[in-house]
# Entry
Amino acid sequence: MRILLKWLLSAVALLAVAYLYSGVQVQSFGSALLAAAVIGLLNMVVRPVLVILTLPVTIVTLGLFLFVINALLFWAASGLLGGFHVNGFFAALVGSLIYSLLGLLIESALGGLLSSRR
# Structure
């Protein structure tokens, strides 16, 4: 239940990113659902490999290179999908930052909501 709710709220967050920032376009809620799933899969499968491979750069930049990795994965998801488009790397960086902030809000809301039900 929690995974399904997080997926739906992540799609809404992606629509909010498209609404707040013109560098990211999402055609429909269905496209947002698919994009949220692809972003989640990329973050689960590809991100750990990239983090390990770029560990020296991440250490030298005091962790700031992780923002670049997030932006690249956000941009890669837009390249894989038709209804989700990002206008370049800078737009991916801004879009991924907004999406991450909204994801933190979703996580804290779900944590508080689902923990109070027990």
Summary: Helices lie at 2-20, 29-53, 55-60, 65-80, 89-116.
